Amino acid sequence: MQKKYLNIYNDLVKKIQSNLWSIGELLPSENELASQYETSRETIRKALDLLSQNGYIQKIQGKGSMIIDRNKFSFPVSGIESFTELAGKLELNSRTIVHSIKYLDPNNKSMEFLKTDPHDRVWNVNRIREIDGEKVILDKDYFNDQYLPLLTEEICQGSIYNYIENELGLVIGFAQKEIVVENPTDEDRELLDLEGFSNVVVIRSQVYLDDANLFQFTESRHRPDKFRFVDFARRVKN
Known about the structure:
By secondary structure, the protein is of the alpha+beta class. The protein has helices at residues 4-17, 30-37, 41-53, 83-90, 111-114, 153-157, 160-167, 186-191, and strands at residues 57-60, 64-67, 73-76, 94-103, 122-131, 134-144, 172-182, 200-209, 214-222, 227-230. The protein folds into 2 domains: 4-67, Arc Repressor Mutant, subunit A; 73-230, Chorismate lyase-like (Chorismate lyase, 3-Layer(aba) Sandwich), CATH 3.40.1410.10. The strands form 3 sheets. It has a 6-stranded antiparallel β-sheet with strand order 4-5-6-9-8-7. Strands 1-2 form a two-stranded antiparallel sheet. A two-stranded parallel ribbon has the order 3-10. A hairpin with a 3-residue loop joins strand 1 (57-60) and strand 2. The longest helix is centred in the first third of the chain and has 14 residues, at 4-17. 21% of the residues are buried.
């Protein structure tokens, strides 16, 4: 016999798929759902957790469970593409806001990720990515100025990778990445439209030129309801 929370989950999925609630609308409260399904709040909580795991709702602290668009933007994890390139490929209604361009304080811990020499200077570029009028990505990029001696607002407004490859003649080779889920920082809440979201998805990358020189460390902080991160894997038989 199927567990009760699974029956409730399946029923809620049918209602969501039939557009009983619109995207952005809140589900009834846990108490209301418990009364409706004649069960405990704990059972309702299990059903809601499953809805969240499968991308139907986003739990928002202090508000409840919001219906989200399951047609999230698919961002490839394994590739090395600029936001400008991805936005063009996905035909996103997007805008880049250059928040700051400066040299990094030598004592900043992000210097460690670039493995720079003591005399090297590091550019820090913070850009906000707006999609459909909502600020949903904060990109924090760090570049060794040994490879990028000049960065202007005009360059950062467009594609820095385009500038690196087509203006500087460098070849971007490969990257090492990690994906984690973190609590939003004060900076995230200030610069992004988080609307009560209790976490952000963070992709940290160390990017190398084709000669294996590390030239970039980047931290891309995403609002969780807008994206899914995809990869392609092929099994190699031993």
